[in-house]
Amino acid sequence: MAYKVLHVGAGGFGEYWCREYLPPNIADGTIEVVGLVDINPKALEIGRKHLNLESAQCFTSAAQAFGAVDADLCTIVVPPAHHESIVDLALGRGMHILSEKPIADTMEASVRIADKVKAAGRKMGVTMSHRFDQDKSTLRAIVSNDALGPINTVSGRFAGDYRSYDSWGRFRHEMVHPMLIEGAVHHLDIIADLAGAPCTSIYARTWKPQWAEYKGDTDVIVVMDFANGSHGVYEGSSTQATGLNSWCSEYFRVEAAFGTAILDHREIEVFHRDPNRIKQLSRHGKGQKVQLLPGVKWENALLIEQFCHWLDGGPPMPTNVEDNLQSVALVFAAIESARLGQPVKVQEFLQSFRNSASITPR
Ligand SMILES: NC(=O)c1ccc[n+]([C@@H]2O[C@H](COP(=O)([O-])OP(=O)(O)OC[C@H]3O[C@@H](n4cnc5c(N)ncnc54)[C@H](O)[C@@H]3O)[C@@H](O)[C@H]2O)c1
C-alpha cells in the first residue's frame, strides 16, 4: 500500500525532494503525494509541476493544508526554527512525520518534539541524508565488519566555499552557529556512526573569519571521545577559500588497529598493516581502491523507503527521532563547549534536557 504524504516545503532543499527524492518512491508504489505546502507561491508551483499535482492539492498555508488533506504522514523541509510548529499540526491530525535535520533549532525544542511524538504514539524519522549517501555507507560497511580491527580515531573535514551572503541559503547567514547547527550536524553524526558508540565528551572551538558574510560562527574544530574508547576530530568551514571538501565530497578517515580507510571526494582507499613488519609507511593515493556499494536509492530517497518499512511494522529506522537526539546533542553540546571554553559530557548534557522537558506546547 502506498502511504499518503503531505509534503511541507517546496523551495530550497524542498525542490530536491520534489524532483529527486519523492519521485522514485512514488514510481515504485512506496508513497503517493496527496498535498503540497509552501508559503512561497513560486516554490509551490515548481513543486506542483515536479509532482504532477492538481492546484487544489497545493497550499500556501500549512494550517490550511493540514485541515484539508488526509495523509498518513507528512514530510517537513522548512528551516529548523519552523519544524516544531509543523510537527504540532501533523500530530494534531494523527500523522507520522519524516523531517529534515536537525530535529529543531534548539536542544529544548528537539527534546520536546521527541516527547510529543512519543506521547502521541506516532513515528518520526529524521533525514540524516549524508550518513546514507553511497560513499559514506560504503565506508561504514568497511569499518564495521571488523576487517580493520577496533577503531582508534575518526577524522572528518568539511571545507565549503559559502562565504558570500546568500550563497548558503539566507537563513544560515542570519542564524547563530550555522556551521554546527546546519552543517556539522551531518558530519558529527557520521563520525559518531563510524566510531560505533555514543559520544561521551565533546570539545569545540568556533569562530568567524573576517571574510564570512554571516552573523554566526562559520568555522569549527571539534574533538570527541566515544564510549568504546575511540576518538573523533572534525574541522568544518563554510568559508574555506576553494571548496576543497564541499557537500557530498567531504573527507573522512578511519584509523583502526590493523589499517586505515580514507574517503575523499567519493573515492575510498584502504591500507592494511603488514603484521610481518616492525614498521610500515604508506601514502594517500597508494591504498587499495574500493568500489562503492551498489544500490538504487541513497540519501533521502532511501530514508523515505526506510521510514515506510518502519510504518509497515519493520524495525525503527536508524534515524528515528529518539535515537537522533544523539546527533542533535552533539551539536548543542558542542555549542555549549564553545561557550564555556571546556569539554562537555554529552550524555549528561542530553539527560539534563530530558529531565526538564515538558510536552506542553511552547
Ligand atoms: N539533508 C540535507 O542534506 C539538507 C540540505 C539542505 C537543507 N536541509 C534541511 O532542509 C530544511 C529546509 O532548508 P532549506 O535549505 O530548504 O531552506 P530554504 O529557506 O532554502 O527553503 C525553505 C522553504 O520552506 C518554505 N517555508 C518556510 N516556512 C514555511 C512554513 N511555515 N510553511 C510552509 N513552507 C515554509 C520557504 O518558503 C522555502 O520555500 C532545513 O531543516 C535544512 O536543514 C537538509
UniProtKB/TrEMBL annotation:
The Gfo/Idh/MocA-like oxidoreductase C-terminal domain, residue ranges: 143-346
Pfam family, one: GFO_IDH_MocA
Domain called Gfo/Idh/MocA-like oxidoreductase N-terminal: residue spans: 4-126
InterPro entries in UniProt: Gfo/Idh/MocA-like_OxRdtase_C (IPR004104), Gfo/Idh/MocA-like_OxRdtase_N (IPR000683), Gfo/Idh/MocA_Oxidoreductases (IPR051450), NAD(P)-bd_dom_sf (IPR036291)
Coiled-coil ranges per UniProt: none
One Gene Ontology molecular-function label: nucleotide binding
Full protein name: Putative dehydrogenase
